[in-house]
Every structure is written in structure tokens, then in C-alpha cells.
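wait is this the right file?? whatever heres the structure
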């Protein structure tokens, strides 16, 4: 793993220049169930399940998350309809994920998060029940790239600050898109860290952090619908909200062919 990749799953330590995205920094409590496609990906330890990453319900029986959230040695479940992790609210749906039904992108390399392809799909052991608290997220048109400054929101249960506490309630933060050209400038992320299959957003006071990894970057389309344009992937080892180091996401619109192929063949 890369060191201090702050967008890494909560349970893993990072070791490099970039870190997987975790908690929402500089955000606020989300209105309960206002992001009904938001998933809490949880791993089993000593008979209990613990939040490690976010995710997006993209079909009643499929969840999209980050590849770096997945370990072959762990047992997972997803929780849908969640808002407060510390309270049983009655809206939660807990669905197991079998190891044979986890599909990590074939060009993902755990030793190089900045190489891209940080995406995985989980086929649920049963379909979710869609209701007022649980809905599927809408994907953007294939190949779409949002312009610089486009307003988007990251949602998740990641740390509130670098090394800070984890929230119980789902957080959200406004993270405007940072263009590919600007994000690759030498005094920003630079050309070695950012690829065209990624999207940068936020930076400074508002950012993703540990525990937000795999969660959605939510952007409102012109027709009013929300679309999931990104999967939280990594932040700077300098800190989750380091200046000119915006949160980096896997750009969903670059992987829609792989997503469709994987879902259709499994």
C-alpha cells in the first residue's frame, strides 16, 4: 500500500505519497437518506462488522466501490439505508457479499494507487429492496468530463480531519471539480499522479479522508438528476485537506464499458 494514502480504508495503514480517501473534511451532517445510493462497506472482525469504505448501489444487486478497499482475506457486507452508524434506525438493509462475487478491475495494482483503475464491483447475495431510503445511483454518460469548478458533493463516513475521529452520521461536503489540466500542474498534483481516467475535486478546507474511500462524488446533471461521477480514491500524504492537493476520484465515465461487461457476464 502507498504510505499515508489518506483515502485508504479505515482499517488499513497507508504507506506512500498518495493515500486512499477517507473521511469528509470540512463537511456537515447530511440530511438522512438524502444520498439513498450511499453504501457502507463493512468487514468482519471477531464476529462484528466495521465500516471501512463507502460505495454506491448502481443496481439492486450491484455495488461499486474502490479496488483498494478490497482484501481477499476479509469477509464483507454492505449496509444500505444507513445514516447513523451508531443507531439502529430501522431503515438499514445488511446484505452479505461472497468472495466469489467481488470483481476488481484487472488493471488495478495495489502497489500503485496513482496508476489508476481503482474500481471494483460487488454482486450482492440478494437484491436490495428499493424504497425511500435505498435507491440506485445514476451513472453519467460514458466519456463525460465535467468542467473546472463544476459543483459536486462527496458523501461518506470518513475521518473529519487527518488523524481525527470518525463520525457516526453520514457527512457531505461541496467539492467543486478541478480540471485535469489544472490538477496536473507541477504545483498541484503533477503529471505523474493524475491520469485522464481520474477526476480531481475539492482541496483545501473540504476534502475526502480515511473511510471515504470508494464513496461517490455526486454531481447534479442539467436535468436535475444526480449522477455519480467519481469513486473516492486517494489524497495526499501531506494530509487529507492539503492545499492544491484535491481529493482524487476514479472517473466513472471512463469505466462504463467495463462496468456493463462485468455486470452482464455475472
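ok assuming it is, sequence goes like this
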Amino acid at each position: 500500500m502507498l504510505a499515508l494514502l489518506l483515502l485508504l480504508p479505515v482499517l488499513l495503514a497507508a504507506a506512500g505519497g498518495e493515500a486512499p480517501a477517507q473521511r469528509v473534511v470540512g463537511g456537515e451532517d447530511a440530511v438522512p437518506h438524502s444520498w439513498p445510493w450511499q453504501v457502507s462497506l463493512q468487514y468482519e472482525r471477531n464476529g462484528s462488522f466495521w465500516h471501512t469504505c463507502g460505495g454506491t448501489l448502481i443496481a439492486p444487486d450491484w455495488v461499486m466501490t474502490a479496488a483498494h478497499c478490497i482484501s481477499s482475506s476479509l469477509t464483507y457486507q454492505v449496509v444500505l439505508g444507513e445514516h447513523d452508524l451508531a443507531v439502529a434506525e430501522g431503515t438499514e438493509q445488511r446484505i452479505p457479499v461472497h468472495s466469489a462475487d467481488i470483481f476488481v478491475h484487472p488493471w488495478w495494482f495495489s502497489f500503485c494507487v496513482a496508476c489508476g483503475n481503482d474500481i471494483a464491483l460487488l454482486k450482492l447475495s440478494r437484491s436490495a429492496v428499493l424504497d425511500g431510503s435505498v435507491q440506485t445511483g445514476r451513472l453519467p454518460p460514458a466519456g463525460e468530463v465535467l468542467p473546472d469548478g463544476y459543483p459536486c458533493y462527496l458523501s461518506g463516513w470518513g475521518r473529519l480531519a487527518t488523524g481525527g475521529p470518525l463520525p457516526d452520521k453520514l457527512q457531505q461536503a461541496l467539492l467543486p471539480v478541478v480540471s485535469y489540466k489544472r490538477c496536473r500542474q507541477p504545483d498541484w498534483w503533477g503529471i505523474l499522479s493524475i491520469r485522464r481516467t481520474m477526476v480531481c475535486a475539492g482541496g483545501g478546507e473540504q476534502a475526502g479522508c480515511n473511510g471515504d474511500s470508494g464513496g461517490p462524488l455526486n454531481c447534479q446533471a442539467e436535468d436535475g438528476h444526480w449522477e455519480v461521477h467519481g469513486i473516492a480514491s486517494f489524497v495526499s500524504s501531506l494530509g487529507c485537506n492539503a492545499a492544491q492537493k484535491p481529493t482524487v476520484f476514479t472517473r466513472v465515465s471512463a469505466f462504463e464499458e467495463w462496468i456493463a461487461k462485468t455486470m452482464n457476464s455475472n
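The longest strand covers residues 48-59. so i think its the right one actually
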